[in-house]
Amino acid sequence: MGHRLSPDAIATLLSNPKPDSLSDIPEIIVQITKLEPKGKSYGFDANDGKMKIKAIFNSRLSSEITSGNIQNLGLIRILDYTVNEIPSKSENYLIITKCEVVSPAPEMEIKDEIRKEEAGIIFKPKQEHEIKIEVKKEPSGILLKPKREMATKSAAQIVHEQHRNMAPTARMAMTRRVHPLVSLNPYQGNWTIKVRVTSKGNMRTYKNARGEGCVFNVELTDEDGTQIQATMFNDAARKFYDKFQLGKVYYISKGTLRVANKQFRTVQNDYEMALNENSEVEEASNEAAFIPETKFNFVPIDQLGPYINSNELVDVIGVIQSVSPTMSIRRKSNNEIVPKRDITIADETKKTVVVSLWNDLATNVGQELLDLADNSPVVAIKSLKVGDFQGVSLSTLGRSIVQINPDTPESNKLRCWYDSDGKETSMASVGSGLSPSTKSGARSMYSDRFSISQITSNPSLGGDKPAFFSIRAYISFIKPDQSMWYRACKTCNKKVTEAVGDGYWCEGCQKNDTECSLRYILVVKVSDASGEGWVSVFNEAEKIIGCSADELDKLKSEKEGSSYQLKLKEATWNPHLFRVSVAQNEYNNEKRQRITVRAVAPVDFAAESRYLLEEISKMKDSP
Amino acid sequence: MDTSKPAIFVNGGLLPMHVRKRVRTVVQVIGSDRGAVIGKSTDDQQLSVKGTPPSVPLTNFVEVIGIADSEKSIQAEIWTNFGDTFDTYSYNQLCQLANGECQLLFL
After folding, report:
1. Is there a contact between B87 and A606 if contact means CB atoms under 8 Å apart?
2. How far apart are alpha carbons B41 and B95 in whole angstroms?
3. Which of A605, A613, A620 minimises the CB distance to B93?
């Protein structure tokens, strides 16, 4: 290029905003960028390689632009100008009254001549967009080819040529500036990301007040392991559904970001992305080596409570306490048999939790864990669903990843803790410790609060699937002559049957045991200010009665039955917070409401008072 | 339950409205002065509680029931230890409600 930009041209212009005569003006050459029509004239950003200033051509010069003489990205020598200040914005703008073309559009916006000499590998993202704007203006233009080659081609020809000319794309890929997912935000739109599709949802159709449509989403993971969910509707969905393939890597730009709806998100990201028809998705070739590092966001076991029954998946890390044999579970939905294995893990919070491994994880990884179990290995698991079986339970999904003894700082920390303290400490299951005072229980005991009559007076509750509520109530009656317990397997807590000969047989574990434990299963009557109802309780009854089922049974079988009666009496008229599920059962062709206690917690009177005060103020607001 | 001598729930700010009436309040014991117990009310005001405290030592929070003999003092007849921790915020709200919109529920 014969001509170069005048160094600090813009500073020069600003220092002499209103030159007295033409001879006053030194040699000023600037590049035109972002050329766009503004009414009768054309506006642009004048670039001197270091700075830019907003500018506008005098309307007399418009014909020069429409004829193609003055081009975007071209260089002009400014012969006459004025610099004005916009008072409200304290910004300057340049009015070009006379100029001459020095050079037509080169291939790029000029930035810091030095960088350009370094083979121009590092292009700013804007550059891409500069050229793209060009393309849009041309009836038929090909990326990166000089504007002169403007033959009229059919759309099919252009697309074909684009596919053939992989070189430009590859060059683009090398020189494209990729942003890490973690840096994206809704306020900065010029980004390109390089991501692998780690999950692809099915195309769903929907109907709402505004009409019909289709939608699907994908989960994207970048090199750092950050994940984000991207959603596409209608045209965009149709455009990209086949393009996105699970496991492949893509360059994506021109999506929009918005704050993620906590209720529906599955990945740990405050934002979620939407792609529309203008978004760009380009497959990255030769990216087999691009393997996103599995990024974990561990949740300590004692903080799993808030995730119960939510859509959000969690990652955990813990030391193996026990590994069960493989169990075969029959899926209710299609009668299929799937393998399952339960492992119990513990972490520094001194709590344990059961993780159910399904399918391949149960058979392969599970077997590995069983073999290593005596060494108490550390296991890190990603993407688990949190359920409420026995208080808190974790379950793997198709996309879950299990790593045994990973070489990471968290794993080493856990190993250190276990070898020094952990081994000896007595741990409690996180499920049995749910109470409002710990973070885990707080949310469930204060959310979906109902009164007993609100439940009993509404027979349609829990029709499709069980509905969950929390209630505060008193135990009003425990029938002394009901069978309070069932015989349970010491390993998996399932019901055992008396074996032929001695001992008990467990169907789940497929083995015999001479001993079994007794676990509570009973109904109790509860009352609150609104009414009363019967609820079923399982082993949570320990918290109500104040002793284990084994101990209560001992009291019952004592010759003098009074200590048993006393124990039950002492349990009566105590207040508790209950988390209950309400479902419908059919009994003799009649639909019956069944209320089951899922968790029991003591009443925290201070917290309860505040809750009541809130309810009182809500009553004041509504008529 | 003896309902013959009802007492009005008060805090420091409400006490002046009920001078010469029977009141009840919970204070945090902060000291004693010339035979009276100095307490901090649930709305952070200093009140003086006269009378004979029980023989057992007072805990951090005490409920006193008696006649309000001035805007800042109570002649207590009944003292009840309420322990070392107490949710003063909730009690304060209770006092507001008991003297305000829910008055009719209390007396």
Report:
1. yes
2. 11
3. A613
Q: How confident is the model at residue A155 (pLDDT cuts 50, 70, 90)?
A: low
Q: Which of A33-37, A59-63, A107-111, A321-325 comes out lowest in average pLDDT?
A: A107-111
A412 touches chain B (CB under 8 A): no
* B2 in A contact zone (CB under 8 Å): no
pLDDT value for A356: 93
**Closest-approach residue (CA) in chain A for B102:** A616
Q: What would the mean pLDDT of A275-293 be, rounded to a whole number?
A: 78
Strands A271-275 and A256-259: antiparallel
Give the Cβ contact number of residue A160 at 10 Å.
Answer: 12
Give the model's confidence band at A171: pLDDT under 50 very low, under 70 low, under 90 confident, else very high: very low
Q: In this model, does residue B100 exceed pLDDT 70?
A: yes
Q: What is the mean pLDDT of chain A?
A: 81
A609/B97 CB distance under 8 A: no
Q: For residue A533, what pLDDT is reported?
A: 95
Q: Chain A window 559-618: which residues touch B at a Cβ cutoff of 8 Å?
A: 605-606, 609-610, 613, 616
Give chain B positions within 8 Å (CB) of A611: none
| Residue contact A606–B90, C-beta within 8 A | yes
Q: Tell me the CA distances in angstroms from A47 to A13, A110, A240, one per residue in order.
A: 12, 8, 37
Pairs from A565-571 (Cβ < 8 Å, separation ≥ 24): A565/A480, A568/A478, A568/A480, A570/A546, A571/A475, A571/A478, A571/A544, A571/A545, A571/A546
3-state helix/strand/coil string of A321-351: EEECCCEEEECCCCCCEEEEEEEEEECCCCE
C-beta atoms surrounding A174 within 10 Å: 8
